[in-house]
């Protein structure tokens, strides 16, 4: 693959090495053959006021110090698509230590991929040094700056290069566009501008080798196709289904982050469709996929879809979302079925069975995507509340309403019923109960078989002691 990119690069910049031509033939469709293209402001029409002031400041500081500095990646892609960028990244030929020296509030981060974070209040601008492909590192440095394992996966990526090298080691052509704050032009080394206009997501270089270098790029393909409503170019899509299992080698913490980007950025339902279509949901949620493939009588696909649509709707309304709720919904049926199995086979009462099921299901899930404890604890609480929500007599309903997890638990109950689980109108009861005044609530509770008063009059355990 590196040869392919190297060759593509030589093709672009007119190098002389034509001896490996047979290597390109097999990849004719995927090799980027465009030459460097400069897109002037009149054409790209990115309004200067949409460029992040702090990112521009960082780029200017770099150029003032004699380095190159460009705004690059998703921010330029999104501005060209008239979308609001999530964040702004800067690329430079200054090495991380050199870049860090230029800023008072700079921090060097990362080992596998060294970066500089420059802080401006709450905003962080990420400054990355131009990377090159690993076959370009000098022999004597082999393994020091860049490292790949036998499967081709990149373990360390600190081989530095030129802007052209940097463009070609990025993932998709539309992510390899550079904005120069000095001439206000967009520099395109991989034909990304044309792909962007056509709505095509195309991997730079040989897709199979690029996925092997970093399997997370497959998830990124699904995510960008969903987010940008782009078509994944056939050669870029072709290897994904076969290589999907490679995601099992990625650190669960990284997969958790990617899952949140897929499901909590406002395009969750499209992302789920892309993931399912490309067999990429399985490596993220293996036990959920197994249940989806079975004939278990639970509306699992429906609840996932409803949870994701719900998340998209909330984000569109600028409401908060939490991974705890999302994971609680996605994993609810695996947990519920496990609980029922434990009750049936091990004769466990419901609550201990649910606790044990939660341990097992969460324990299994964290082998794929991590779930930090600040989320796994609320997941358990939301599930436990599902057992308590049907019991509304006495003052139980009022007490449940005051629980910190009530709202999320009620939302899961709603989703369960909306998705087709038969709960006898329980979520409607809770909707009415929340909307009712004090008197109406009393009546609703009484019709459940007991008021707060009756319960207080029956202190079963106290009575015998006071008589003795
Ligand atoms: P967004 O921020 O909207 O999620 P993005 O394209 O900016 O999308 P980032 O994760 O912020 O994505 O990465 C910034 C840029 O770094 C990308 O546009 C791409 O050029 C490059 N990049 C990120 N991850 C990879 C990767 N795994 N392989 C190759 N290039 C990558
Ligand atoms: Mg970004």
What does this protein look like?
- This protein is of the alpha+beta class and 468 residues long.
- It folds into two domains: 2-198, 2-Layer Sandwich (Beta Polymerase, domain 2); 281-447, cca-adding enzyme, domain 2.
- The chain has 27 helices and twelve strands.
- An eight-stranded mixed sheet has the order 1-10-9-2-3-6-5-4. Strands 7-8 form a two-stranded antiparallel ribbon.
- Helix 10 (216-228) runs parallel beside helix 13 (252-263) and helix 21 packs across helix 23.
- The protein is elongated and about 80 Å long.
- Mean pLDDT is 88; it is low at 1-34, 451-457 and 462-468.
- Bound molecules: adenosine-5'-triphosphate (ATP) and magnesium ion (MG).
- Adenosine-5'-triphosphate (ATP) binds next to helix 10.
Side-by-side strand order of the widest sheet: 1-10-9-2-3-6-5-4
Gyration radius, to the nearest Å? 28 Å
Percent in strands:
5-15%
Supply the CATH architecture of the largest domain.
2-Layer Sandwich
Provide the CATH topology of the largest domain: Beta Polymerase, domain 2
Number of helices: 27
Question: How many structural units, i.e. domains?
Answer: 2
Write out the CATH superfamily name of the largest domain. Beta Polymerase, domain 2
- How would you sum up the major sheet? 8 strands, mixed
Question: Which regions have little confidence, pLDDT < 50, spanning 5+ residues?
Answer: 1-34, 451-457, 462-468
Number of strands: 12
In helices, the fraction of residues equals 40-55%
What's the CATH class of the largest domain, please? Alpha Beta
Report the average pLDDT across residues.
88
């Amino acid at each position: 693959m590196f040869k392919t990119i190297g060759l593509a690069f030589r093709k672009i910049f007119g190098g002389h090495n034509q001896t490996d031509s047979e290597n390109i033939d097999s990849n004719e469709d995927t090799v980027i053959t465009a030459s460097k293209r400069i897109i002037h402001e009149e054409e790209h029409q990115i309004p200067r006021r949409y460029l992040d002031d702090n990112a521009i400041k960082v780029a200017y500081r770099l150029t003032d110090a004699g380095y190159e500095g460009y705004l690059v990646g998703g921010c330029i892609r999104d501005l060209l698509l008239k979308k609001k960028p999530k964040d702004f990244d800067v690329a430079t030929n200054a090495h991380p230590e050199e870049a860090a020296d230029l800023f008072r509030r700079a921090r060097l981060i990362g080992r596998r991929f060294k970066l500089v974070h420059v802080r401006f209040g709450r905003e962080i601008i990420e400054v990355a040094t131009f990377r090159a492909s690993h076959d370009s590192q000098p022999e004597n440095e082999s393994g020091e700056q860049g490292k790949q394992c036998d499967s081709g996966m990149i373990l360390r990526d600190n081989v530095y290069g030129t802007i052209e090298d940097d463009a070609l080691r990025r993932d998709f052509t539309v992510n390899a566009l550079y904005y120069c704050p000095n001439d206000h032009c967009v520099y395109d080394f991989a034909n990304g501008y044309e792909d962007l206009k056509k709505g095509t997501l195309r991997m730079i270089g040989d897709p199979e080798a690029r996925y092997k270098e970093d399997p997370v790029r497959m998830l990124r393909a699904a995510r960008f196709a969903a987010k940008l409503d782009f078509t994944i170019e056939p050669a870029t899509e072709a290897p994904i289904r076969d290589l999907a299992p490679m995601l099992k080698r990625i650190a669960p913490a990284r997969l958790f982050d990617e899952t949140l980007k897929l499901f909590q950025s406002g395009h969750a339902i499209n992302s789920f469709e892309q993931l399912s279509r490309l067999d990429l949901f399985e490596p993220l949620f293996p036990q959920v996929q197994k249940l989806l493939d079975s004939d278990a009588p639970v509306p699992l696909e429906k609840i996932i879809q409803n949870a994701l649509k719900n998340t998209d709707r909330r984000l569109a309304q600028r409401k908060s979302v939490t991974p705890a709720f999302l994971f609680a919904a996605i994993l609810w049926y695996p947990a519920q079925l496990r609980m029922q199995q434990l009750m049936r086979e091990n004769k466990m009462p419901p609550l201990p069975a649910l606790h044990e099921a939660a341990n097992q299901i969460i324990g299994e899930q964290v082998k794929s995507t991590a779930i930090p404890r600040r989320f796994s604890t609320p997941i358990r609480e939301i599930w436990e509340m599902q057992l308590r929500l049907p019991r509304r007599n006495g003052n139980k309903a009022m007490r449940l309403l005051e629980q910190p997890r009530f709202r999320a638990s009620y939302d899961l109950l709603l989703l369960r019923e909306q998705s087709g689980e038969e709960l006898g109108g329980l979520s409607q009861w809770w909707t009415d109960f929340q909307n009712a005044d004090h008197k109406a609530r009393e009546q609703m509770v009484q019709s459940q078989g007991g008021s707060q008063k009756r319960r207080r009059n029956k202190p079963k355990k106290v009575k015998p002691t006071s008589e003795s």
